[in-house]
Amino acid sequence: MLVVDNLTYSHKEDHEESKSFCYNLSFEKIHTIREENGWGKSTLMDLIAGFLKPQKGAIKWQGQSLLSLSTKKRPVSYLMQAPVFFPLLSVIDTLHLSGALKSECIEALNGFDVSFELDQKMTNLSGGQRQLVMFLQCLLQKRDIVLLDEPFSAMDLKTEAKTKHYLEKHQSKTGAVVLMSDHSS
């Protein structure tokens, strides 16, 4: 279980306007946060991933604190709202950065009607296509905690529906805790 307990963070040094978060996220479920802009969804994910340090509170995974672990050592994969990618890498090489076998990367793309080639450069893809590739790269990392910050924002409705279905299958198969922010209904 992922526990976020009385986590407090402030973007300002004087701790004015701090955000507090309390969550208990269990296995076998996709947790979606639907809140207005500025609520702190990305901040919460940055705290869980280790990119930000809280002023107080706890983040625990299976009873162990994550706060003392570096970002690399946390059991977290994170698709940021503005995914970072290497523009000159190909689609297959980008997916392969996840640590998955190339055959697993190809299999992950098989469920989608993609109009791009595996050797196509990331910079030549549309925003929605890049978002799909980065989404799959995130899941291919096979981590226990998956953070998805507005993962469908650039996708067309057909790709979004397929991606949501893929996410449900992935979560059911792996048992990962999935925390996702989403503005759609």
Structure description:
The strands form two sheets. A four-stranded antiparallel sheet has the order 2-1-4-5, with helices on one face. A hairpin with a 2-residue loop joins strand 4 and strand 5 (64-65). The two termini are 26 Å apart. It has 185 residues and is of the alpha/beta class. The protein has helices at residues 41-49, 91-96, 102-110, 127-140, 157-174; strands at 2-9, 19-25, 30-33, 56-61, 64-65, 76-79, 145-149, 177-181. The protein has five helices and eight strands. It has a single domain, classed as Rossmann fold (3-Layer(aba) Sandwich). 30% of the residues lie in helices and 22% in strands.
* Overall number of strands: 8
- Structural class category: alpha/beta
Largest sheet: 4 strands, antiparallel
Total number of helices: 5
Name of the CATH architecture: 3-Layer(aba) Sandwich
The CATH class label is Alpha Beta
Mean pLDDT: 89
Instruction: Based on Cα principal axes, name the global outline.
Output: globular
Low-confidence segments, given as residue ranges, are none
Strand order of the largest sheet: 2-1-4-5
Supply the number of structural domains.
1
Fraction of helical residues: 25-40%
| Percent of residues in beta strands | 15-25%
